[in-house]
Amino acid sequence: xxxxxxxxxxxxxxxxxxxxxxxxxxxxxxxxxxxxxxxxxxxxxxxxxxxxxxxxxxxxxxxxxxxxxxxxxxxxxxxxxxxxxxxxxxxxxxxxxxxxxxxxxxxxxxxxxxxxxxxxxxxxxxxxxxxxxxxxxxxxxxxxxxxxxxxxxxxxxxxxxxxxxxxxxxxxxxxxxxxxxxxxxxxxxxxxxxxxxxxxxxxxxxxxxxxxxxxxxxxxxxxxxxxxxxxxxxxxxxxxxxxxxxxxxxxxxxxxxxxxxxxxxxxxxxxxxxxxxxxxxxxxxxxxxxxxxxxxxxxxxxxxxxxxxxxxxxxxxxxxxxxxxxxxxxxxxxxxxxxxxxxxxxxxxxxxxxxxxxxxxxxxxxxxxxxxxxxxxxxxxxxxxxxxxxxxxxxxxxxxxxxxxxxxxxxxxxxxxxxxxxxxxxxxxxxxxxxxxxxxxxxxxxxxxxxxxxxxxxxxxxxxxxxxxxxxxxxxxxx
Length: 479
Ligand code: C2O
Ligand code: CU
Ligand code: CU
Known about the structure:
Elements: H1 3-10, E1 15-18, E2 21-24, E3 44-45, E4 51-52, E5 55-65, E6 73-77, E7 86-90, E8 94-101, E9 110-112, E10 133-139, E11 145-150, H2 157-162, E12 167-172, H3 174-177, E13 187-197, E14 203-204, H4 209-214, E15 220-223, E16 226-227, E17 229-234, E18 237-244, E19 251-255, E20 261-266, E21 269-277, E22 280-282, E23 287-293, E24 302-307, E25 322-331, E26 354-362, E27 371-373, E28 385-387, E29 392-398, E30 406-410, E31 415-421, E32 437-440, E33 445-451, E34 456-462, H5 465-469, E35 473-478
Parallel strand pairs: 3-17, 4-7, 5-8, 7-12, 13-18, 17-25, 26-29, 28-35
Antiparallel strand pairs: 1-2, 5-6, 8-10, 9-11, 11-12, 13-14, 13-15, 15-16, 18-23, 19-22, 19-24, 20-21, 20-23, 24-25, 26-27, 29-33, 30-32, 30-34, 31-33, 34-35
Bound molecules: CU-O-CU linkage (C2O) and copper (II) ion (2 copies).
């Protein structure tokens, strides 16, 4: 492609050429404001994905969905429509999922948050062809928490996830049951995603230069695949397991009246103690487990789970205020649940033998490969880091010279966040438990401590899926 055509495909409002380098002077996507539900809207009842046990089948298909409201349109799905079933497995249980690819293209599955052998992890080299099958079989050896699954083919992850392929993976344990947290109708999973739609109602995914830079932001918010969702609640505690399943958008979760709520869990499980907050920032791929006490509100009241604007995030992906989910308090109920003082104890990882530094930096030279880690672009056959099995290490993600946040995710481990310097300067309340993804804001250096307990080759990457597909990903091998 000649330079002229190349520039045309960039579709930017302002481009300056300096000695052959392209300098982007306008690449801020924050004018895409999502349309949340407003107070007068009735909306659509929140859909809850069906549950699948540890032994079952998942089929990736070209399905159909109406997003709980409009007309049926083609989507990709693991269960016919948008999003797959929620898999529930017990700690110690063996999971056996037979997977079939009924799409017209390659795909695979990554079990985000699970520490499992490399041949089960969905490395980008693992492709399952159209009509192909694969039997996933692995033992769940980790604590109770909400993990998730989605495709992980290099350069197709953003598109396949946005088109509908992802699902939740909940691990349960007796230890967790002992806490008697709100369950059944009072335990609600929330997969938050933003999407763009074409005029024919189909999900649009066509990132241009600007979207690759900032992430592909949507102007509609879906929860569990529902557009303009609402849920009726009673005057009692509810547990919400929240996943940011968007490709890039960062949410600052709050209640619309500013009330406090409690964080009881992070990516991979429950926190040692509940943390009271009135907002928290959730990057792509991150999860939080929340308790909201609706007994503070009168019957008849409407309020929203919303995303507030935020600071210290540079050109953050999606810094707007909008509503996500409407709660209507409909029934009076006596609640015997008391917020526990402590949850699940967590032993601090200590005794690191090595610190690795990863510089997160842009290079604005070409169309592909702008987002880099230590100035490298992903090569699925190159091993970038070698780690000894059983080693404890500190990994530092350095975004001090960056101007956008990167939610950094590491496969096949669970880590603890130990320091954040620059930017926000502190570890956030929802980061005080087990994590696999950490939001690294502009100006920040974040250190996590990891014990490597799974042999094999895995990736770590930015979970802004446009950045990931652009090559912001490296391989590490545990030997
Ligand atoms: Cu959810 Cu490698 O990612
Ligand atoms: Cu993962
Ligand atoms: Cu990134």
